[in-house]
Amino acid sequence: MVTVESSQGQRFPEAVRQGMRASGASATCVPVRFGGDAWEAALFVQVAEPECKRDRRVLSKATRSLQVSMEADLIENPNAAVVMLRLEVFTLPDDPLASEILLTPGGVTTHFETLKLLAQQRRLCWFFGDQDFNVIHSQQHPLTEEQRAGFDDLLRDAIQHDSLIRLTARYDARAALAEVVEHYELREGVMRTEYHTIGRTRRGKPSRS
After folding, report:
1. Residues 85-106: what's their mean pLDDT?
2. What pTM, to 2 d.p., does this model score?
3. Going by C-beta distance under 8 Å and a sequence separation of 6 or more, which residues neighbour residue 30?
4. Distances (CA, A) of 85 to 11, 27, 34, 92
């Protein structure tokens, strides 16, 4: 069980810290429990890079929720379905802090559960941490019926894509992630290649395909 405290001065839960260290990810979306409440997916973003100094300052001094955005896309790779979450937090009006997370719902149970929860829950909590995973800011936003339906459609399409692959070929989430990561490395040269939840945080808006 992963328990999260939302007050500032806390750290990311140990299981979240271990997972991010193991994968080299600076952003992740995982199922958590807030005390004795029901399971829900939550976002954890580590803002540790030197170029993010201004962002850390804005986040640590924030007294209200900052503007954020999130997009979700399905990449129908021949080896497996890969879901990409693109996050932006507007720490600077014209230069948002951007994060991208890759999930393979057909290959990792936690990824499937994360997307399933996003299709059901009515809010999404965001946690931002420093180099040592200390929470410097947290906020939550409602998930509308339309957004939940979008995640439900995304998960259904991913399951269907993976089912077809398993009928005609060898399902390989590792190969799918490697191809997606290679694509981003060729474009920008900064993405990690581990198999677990892959996530990165960087300055500027995410590039579009």
Report:
1. 91
2. 0.85
3. 2, 16, 19, 41, 42, 44, 110, 114, 197
4. 23, 10, 22, 21
